[in-house]
UniProtKB/TrEMBL annotation:
<dbReference type="Pfam" id="PF08002">
    <property type="entry name" value="DUF1697"/>
</dbReference>
<dbReference type="InterPro" id="IPR012545">
    <property type="entry name" value="DUF1697"/>
</dbReference>
<protein>
    <submittedName>
        <fullName>DUF1697 domain-containing protein</fullName>
    </submittedName>
</protein>
Amino acid sequence: MKTYIALLRGINVSGQKKIIMADLKIMFEELGCTSVSTYIQSGNIVFQHKKDMLTLTDIIKKEILTQFGFDVPVLVLTREMLTTIYDNNPFLKRLEAKEIEEKKMYFTLLSRMPDHKDIEDVESTTARSGNEEFVIAKDVVYFYAANGYGKTKLNNNFFEKKLQSTATTRNLKTVIKLLELSKLD
């Protein structure tokens, strides 16, 4: 059994696409997943399964549509992948030195690597407000929202549109918690 982390985009946000986590956990178990645990209401599920990531992504996406009636983007990662994303955070040293606030650090995870031209366009044309900073690396955007995520124009939808990739964003606290929960192997 391999440990996976499923990230669902856009559920339980402002009363939209409501899914009770206990029901989601049952759905995962019905799909043959074991050691299923959820974290907060925004669609973070840690589980184990024998199948590969791409197969699981399709199965989970289809089952959510069948059981709950929502077309929800699903991103499935291994614990190793999320660990690498965390370890490669270009803001990590500044976070550790308390130069920047942990609560303003975000990870926008992309379903695929964006085209090099799209990355260049975003980096060269994006007007950043205040002290906002971001680094696009492979399939993740590391984003420091100095003014808070609720006030930025550089949100999940922005990066998703500009980089032409389905995306979902998690804060640093959630990434750390998912890494802790996924120590199942």
